[in-house]
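Fill in residues.
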């Protein structure tokens, strides 16, 4: 069997490890990674026209309207050679977005990362991120060598503004209501892969690699 190119999306509750596993997967398969939240925060920081619109929503615990999200992501995808593959994390987040995406780029793998809400809360309340390079750490699970300092670039580590108890609860509600229906959508498309995301980061990654290897994706 010839090897398949990764045209993958990752979805799961906030804190399930989409960004973490997306980065590992993209590195292993040598394809670009597009992280929706990361992309939006960059647009906001650069104060672009779209960034000003995104600012209203990102960080408030609600989803950005589909029209705006679809425009930003499509624009980003257009800059890639889609035949060479990609990993998208955090997009799509509802069936409307998934339908839009399928018109722009056909998806051949949708990885669902499953963790209980309680674990999501534990992870997000301990999450810190580098203000310079966006590398993510966890205060107890994957702490940086020097407290408060990024091990990769020396940048300062900060908590995200939306990683508060109240906003985490709101984002989890949004996930169950809006994003979870993607399970049915991608199952019907025949591309769903459900992964238990509760184990430590390298174990979750190995599980993904093992399972997608069996599906004909080879790094
Ligand atoms: P998401 O992109 O789904 O919101 P992240 O990849 O940012 O999730 O991970 C959320 C937090 O949980 C981070 O602090 C990260 O270091 C930590 N984390 C990710 N995967 C695991 C795991 N398998 N076990 C323990 N902690 C994890
Ligand atoms: P997390 O998975 O940890 O909640 P992200 O960094 O992926 O965080 O996203 C941060 C915020 O950006 C979300 O809470 C939401 O407001 C917005 N966002 C990200 N992706 C999407 C999307 N596909 N559709 C709508 N809003 C989005
Ligand atoms: Zn850094």
């Amino acid at each position: 069997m010839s090897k398949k190119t990764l045209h993958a999306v990752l979805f799961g509750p906030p804190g399930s490890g989409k960004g973490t596993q997306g980065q590992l997967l993209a590195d292993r398969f040598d394809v670009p990674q597009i992280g929706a939240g990361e992309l939006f925060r960059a647009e906001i920081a650069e104060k672009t026209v779209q960034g000003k619109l995104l600012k209203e929503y990102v960080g408030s615990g609600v989803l950005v309207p589909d029209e705006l999200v679809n425009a930003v992501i499509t624009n980003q995808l257009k800059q890639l050679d889609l035949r060479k593959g990609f990993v998208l994390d955090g997009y799509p987040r509802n069936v409307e977005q998934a339908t839009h995406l399928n018109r722009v780029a056909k998806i051949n793998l949708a990885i669902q990362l499953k963790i209980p809400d309680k674990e999501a809360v534990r992870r997000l309340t301990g999450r810190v991120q580098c203000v310079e390079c966006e590398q993510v750490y966890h205060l107890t699970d994957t702490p940086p060598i020097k407290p408060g300092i990024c091990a990769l670039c020396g940048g300062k580590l900060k908590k995200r503004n939306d990683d508060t108890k109240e906003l985490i609860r709101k984002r989890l509600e949004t996930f169950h209501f809006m994003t979870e229906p993607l399970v049915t959508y991608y199952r019907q498309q025949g591309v769903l892969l459900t992964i238990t995301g509760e184990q430590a980061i390298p174990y979750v990654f190995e599980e993904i690699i093992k399972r997608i290897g069996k599906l004909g994706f080879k790094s």
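The first strand starts at residue 7 and ends at 11.
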